[in-house]
Amino acid sequence: MWIKRNGALYGDDIDSSEITPRHVFENRRRVLQSMGALAATGLAGASGFAHATLTSPDAKGQKLSATTNPKFVALDKPTSLKDITTYNNFYEFGTDKSDPAQHASTLRPRPWKVSVEGAIKNPKVYDIDEMLKIAPLEERVYRLRCVEGWSMVIPWIGVSLSELIKRAEPTGNAKYVQFISLADSSQMPGLSTPILDWPYSEGLRMDEAMNPLTLLTVGLYGEVLPNQNGAPVRIIVPWKYGFKSAKSLVKIRFVEKQPPTSWNTYAPSEYGFYSNVNPSVDHPRWSQATERRIGEDGFFAPKRKTLMFNGYGDQVASLYQGMDLKKNF
Ligand code: MTE
User: Fold this and answer.
1) Separation of alpha carbons 17 and 23, rounded Å
2) Cα separation of 55 and 72, whole Å?
3) Backbone angles phi, psi at 66, to 5 degrees
4) 251: closest CA among 188, 194, 202?
5) 262 lines ligand 1 (CB under 6 A)
6) Residue 321 gets which letter from DSSP?
7) How is the chain split into domains, by residue range?
8) What pLDDT shows up at residue 120?
9) Mind spelling out the 3-state secondary structure of 25-47?
10) Are 183 and 200 in contact (CB under 8 A)?
11) What is the pTM (predicted TM-score) of this model?
12) Tens digit of each residue's pLDDT (9 = 90 or more) over 47-57
């Protein structure tokens, strides 16, 4: 039998990978593999994730073993590893998009400690390798939308931040979580330019931090995080603009009052505390209605419509019920 799809004819004897856009097929395969459905066909394991343990002192390029979590796989085409690792914002290494890839080799992601502290019953200084083991690592394919108007799709590896929070046992005074990045001028040449009030700092309300989407992130594309993407551990909050996703964390602090955050302190009228992706609230310099997907920037590539909460409304809209999101931008 012949079927007509998007104006083209296909026979039913061809592989499903040819009638479905390749990336959709590949992301579905990720999901199916994770459910064990392909185990019997011998295709399981074809995603290329090796099962190595971390041994090298700096861990650079080490493979990470992770299971795809089918609940969290965007079917958009993942951005290429090259674009994800050469088009970055990491001001501790310079303000140009190419600076982090060029200069972040001075960052030393091992040994690395993260202090989990504040209004919790179990404060603890984690060694990064211990942190990698708090729960089985998951691969999740998330959209990342930057406030500057571009977006990417990234196969991250990590665990829900809620896993760490449960172990910390927050007290009744823990209303917010603050994320603090490393600020070490011997490793980060950009610190000599006082653009932001270093260390880079971000924050979430407690219920946002507990949402299963919020990812304590340690890798991407099957490997530990490259330095320029925030090695060895960062936060990823996919329904918020990218600057909420602080890199190279050294402190996770539970606090009672809304914590100061770097971009909000720099320009409070431009960068709100919430910073949920919202196509109807423009930044003073950038429309937020549409976005340019990195890798699709050919001359005729149309811009994409930006989705409310970056497309994660089903999971997060309830967090903001009754709130004026124009005021709380
Ligand atoms: N974290 C730190 N410590 N320093 C930064 O400059 N930039 C933010 C965020 N986290 C930044 C940071 C911004 S503006 C964005 S868009 C994302 O990281 C970019 O993440 P990526 O380079 O992995 O795509």
Assistant:
1) 9
2) 29
3) -150, 150
4) 202
5) no
6) T
7) 3-320
8) 98
9) HHHHHHHHHHCCCCHHHCCCCCC
10) yes
11) 0.87
12) 333 333 444 44
Beta strands in 174-309 (DSSP E): 176-181, 201-205, 215-220, 223-224, 234-236, 249-255, 290-293, 304-305
Q: From ligand 1's centre to the CA of 243, what distance in Å?
A: 5
C-alpha to C-alpha distance for 165 and 177, rounded to whole angstroms? 10
Q: How far is CA 158 from CA 61, 216, 234, in A?
A: 16, 5, 9
Residue 189 backbone phi and psi in degrees, to 5: -60, -25
User: Which residues 6+ apart lie within 8 Å of 299 measured at CB?
Assistant: none
Q: Which fold has domain 3-320?
A: Sulfite Oxidase; Chain A, domain 2 (3.90.420)
- Is 276 annotated as contributing to ligand binding? no
Ligand 1 proximity of 200 Cβ (cutoff 6 Å): yes
CB 158, CB 219: distance < 8 Å: yes
Q: 216 C-alpha to center of ligand 1: Å? A: 14
Give the Å distance between the CA of 198 and the centre of ligand 1.
14
Phi, psi at 272, each rounded to 5° = -80, 170
| d(C-alpha 225, C-alpha 231), whole Å | 5
Q: Is 213 left (phi over 0), alpha (psi -120 to 50) or beta?
A: alpha
Cβ atoms 275, 325 nearer than 8 A = no
Output the six-digit token pair for 66: 């992770």
Which pLDDT score, from 0 to 100, does residue 105 have? Answer: 97
Do 125 and 135 touch, CB atoms closer than 8 A? no
**Residue ranges, the chain, pLDDT below 70:** 1-25, 28-59
